[in-house]
Specification:
Blueprint (H helix, E strand, L loop, with lengths): L10 H27 L3 H27 L10 H4 L10 H25 L3 H27 L36 H27 L3 H26 L23 H24 L4 H27 L12 H8 L1
Pfam families: DUF3231 (PF11553)
Protein name: DUF3231 family protein
Length: about 325
């Protein structure tokens, strides 16, 4: 009987391992640079832990690929994709919020991985990563709270009791009496603002430091889109007299020295855009009001086109590494002939 440890990697396991390797190599590039410029000791300690865990992941992932005789992805390297001696580009406040968002993205990604993998050793690996992400969220929240930087979502009044929806007006959104936002709708709007606000700063930094005119134009467009989405989400909340979270426009310096390669910045830009599509889709599914659903559909179409244009730039420049895929039967037949 074949043991689960020796079973051939499934497509689901390969996809998760491959993506994890690419993302961990990116994290090591970013974290190594951040450690050169962080001044706050608490944030430095968190970043050191992040780098240590990412490097540990790469070692374990490398061993898994080698043991299964599968080609190791290239990903990103400190030699080619980051200038660790570049001047300060981001403030410590930005870096701390980057840490918090990175941990949340990791929690989502690893929860999917734990769900879809089968082999015991792969399940154990991603379960460990999931636990690490959860702990990093807890620690980053502690530091944000201690520095008065944690942005709490709005509080809601306590209802007198349980209530049930009595009419289809609950779904209305354009005409007549529009009901107030539900707690889940508020949560999604609030977190989407936070992610886009951080995206504005990230894109501005990339605009300042990218080498190619094509990538500069792409990042400028990304900043404009993120700014527009912040305005749309904020105005939706303000109609119910709810406060929107602040932005971090001042958290990037005026440095124009390149820190990250255009390849790394383009990958990160398209990756985060793809993540946003997922968050918007989940937000739409959790928003019964018709106007909110239509809003998310419109914004998803915009960033979907942006992501496609980014993918085309990466392909054109030879920056897009191809993920594992099924065998091309037509190509195999040609080789045989």
């Amino acid at each position: 009987m074949e043991t689960t440890h020796n079973a051939k990697l499934t497509a689901a396991e390969l996809s998760q391992l491959w993506s994890a390797y690419i993302n961990d190599t990116l994290i090591t590039c970013e974290a190594t640079y951040y450690l050169q410029i962080i001044e706050d000791p608490q944030i430095r300690e968190l970043m050191s832990l992040t780098l240590q865990e990412a490097e540990g992941h790469i070692k374990k992932l490398t061993a898994i690929f080698n043991d299964n005789q599968y080609p190791l992805p290239k990903g990103f390297t400190k030699e080619e994709d980051v200038n660790v001696n570049a001047p300060r580009l981001f403030s410590d406040v930005y870096i701390l919020n980057w840490l918090s968002q990175f941990a949340k993205l990791g929690l989502n990604a690893y929860s999917v991985s734990v769900e879809v993998v089968t082999r015991e050793d792969i399940q154990s690996y991603f379960s460990e990563c999931l636990s690490q992400s959860n702990e990093l969220i807890r620690k980053s929240n502690e530091v944000l709270l201690s520095k008065g930087l944690y942005m709490r979502p709005p509080s809601l009044p306590t209802p007198d009791g349980i209530d049930f929806v009595k009419s289809q007006e609950f779904l209305a959104g354009w005409f007549g009496d529009v009901r107030p936002l539900t707690s889940l709708e508020i949560t999604n709007l609030y977190t989407n603002i936070q992610r886009n606000a951080l995206g504005i700063v990230t894109m501005q930094a990339f605009v300042q430091t990218a080498k190619s005119k094509e990538t500069v134009r792409y990042f400028k467009r990304g900043k404009q889109i993120a700014g527009k989405h912040v305005e749309v989400f904020s105005s939706t909340m303000q109609k119910d007299d709810l406060p929107a979270p602040m932005t971090w426009d001042a958290e990037v310096t005026d440095s124009t020295s390149q820190v990250f390669s255009d390849k790394l910045m383009m990958y990160k830009g398209t990756f985060l855009t793809g993540i946003s599509l997922g968050y918007y889709g989940a937000s739409m599914a959790a928003s019964p009001r018709r106007d909110l659903g239509a809003m998310y559909v419109r914004l998803m179409a915009e960033i979907g086109k942006y992501a496609e244009d980014g993918a085309n730039i990466m392909i054109k420049n030879g920056w897009m590494e191809e993920p594992p895929r099924a065998a091309d039967r037509d190509e195999l037949a040609k080789k045989k002939g």
